[in-house]
Amino acid sequence: MTQIDEHNQPRDRRGEWRPNRAVRFMPLFDWPTTPRTLAKWFFGIPGFLVPWYAIYLGFTLVAYLWFTPEIARMQSLSPGWALEILARNVVMVTLFTGGLHLWLYRLRGQGRWAKYNGSWPAERDKRFLFNNQVYDNVFWSIVGVVIWTGFEVGLWWGYANGALPFSGVAENPVWFVLWMLLMPFWRNFHFYWIHRLIHWPPLYRSVHYLHHKNVNVGPWSGLAMHPVEHLLYFSCLLIHLVVPSHPLHMMFNGMATALGPGASHSGFDEIVFGDEMAVQNDKLMHYLHHRYHSVNFGENAVPLDKWFGSFHDGTPEADARFRAARTAR
């Protein structure tokens, strides 16, 4: 039974709303496709890079230029500079994820407009620490920031001591730009496989269950993970042990990995400010993963879910196929 909410949006009997478009993957894998179509998807406004990856890159540049210790200090491991990086990372996540939460959930600045789930986070629920979903999520997110910082500190120490493969801007400008543009695809690829791994029943029951307590997700739900899952999730940074990189590549990789879940778990299809400005979010794909658990393990840059049979595009037809497959199992 369909109901119309206060924003004139249709919601089903569970209070769920979905956009009137199916989830799509990068047009690189459509056939036929054209360079113009690819360029528009990748560089357009909005597009794959803008707004979210552009925002993550902005945070990265601010952190690198003004809030990163001098590399000479990093030749020796010490609590001083490591804690500076930890403090910077906590502030960055709080500004981004906390800002999304403040606008969307605390102030409810756009009400339920473009909200996938019609309910708000649980405030009295014994499944969560402190009986509160948001407090629980913030706690586990900060644990994740500590683990991310551990990876970053180790890599900075490696760069400072010449122990990691390095590629500078002046020496290899083409590779510098190309590797920065490829970083989101690496993250998509890595995320899909570690996500499939932690859905293996023994790991799901002991580790990943903590993240999936969040069915009705919010920005802080993104990094609300078991520490073992944090270790696996941020292990995407280990690629810099083997691929020649500049520290900016490493920082962008880490920043996007830490901030990205805030956007992908916002629970909203777009972020609206006033009557004029709206930022496309388009995170239905991952919302459906939290809704059904056994679909959409990756993201939409690389169609691994489509290739391996776990894709749900959000349409009623996909719902019917999912229910039929579940019944068959």
Strand content: under 5%
Structural class: mainly alpha
* Structural domain tally: 1
Low-confidence stretches: none
Shape: globular
Largest sheet: 2 strands, antiparallel
Report Rg.
20 Å
Tally the beta strands: 4
If you had to describe this structure to a student in words, what would you say it looks like?
GO terms for molecular function: iron ion binding; oxidoreductase activity. Keywords: Membrane, Transmembrane, Transmembrane helix. This protein is mainly α and about 325 residues long. The protein has one domain. The chain has helices at about 35-45, 50-65, 80-105, 135-160, 175-200, 200-210, 225-235, 245-265, 285-290, 305, 315-329, and strands at about 5, 10, 270-275, 275-280. A hairpin with a 3-residue loop joins strand 3 (about 270-275) and strand 4 (about 275-280). The model has no long low-confidence stretch (mean pLDDT about 95).
